[in-house]
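thread: overnight batch results

M.L. [08:02]
morning all. the overnight job finished for the chain we discussed friday. pasting input first so we're all looking at the same thing
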Amino acid sequence: MQAAFDALVAAGTQVTRALQAWGEAVAPDSKASRFLDTASATDQTVSGIGAALEPLGIKDKEKPYRPAKVGSWQTADFDEREDIQKQWDVTAAVSGEGTYTVRFAYTRGWNGLTIRRLALVAARKGAPGERTEVAADQHDGVAANEDKANTYTLKLPTHDPAARYLLTAEIQGVTSKGKPPDRQGCEGEVWFAKERPGPPK
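M.L. [08:03]
and the structure it wrote out:
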């Protein structure tokens, strides 16, 4: 069964890479949403099968490299103020040292999201108040109908398996208070994945 699942994972990875390359070739200056959506559906299908097989002892060796939803933002987050900081626990998704990518994906609402800065913070278990920033990416990005620089890169030099890892984002949304019903809403998801290591030099 492990060999059969490994073959499925390899096929899924091949399909996803081909769709991404196709999208970049056909529509390099757009979101190419059809290609991205199909690639995402492929990844989620393989991940779902992997999760179902895990209790049987089947290992999903490519799991860290497929994007996993680790958080979201909601319209109500911006009711009191539009510039806020949000945190999401990504301990289960951090599998070791390496480079991780984080994508902010708009899902619905009249308004998009502006991202200012993203950091990965480590907290020692047993001492949750002691937190250390271990990686960060600071640039303005937008997650909306038209994304702009909405993917962030975090390079984790060392991994502490006893630590808890949190994403801390400085973001700006738009309040719906006082807005017409058809001009409200600011919602989206946060996707996290580890980059595959390149070939040895």
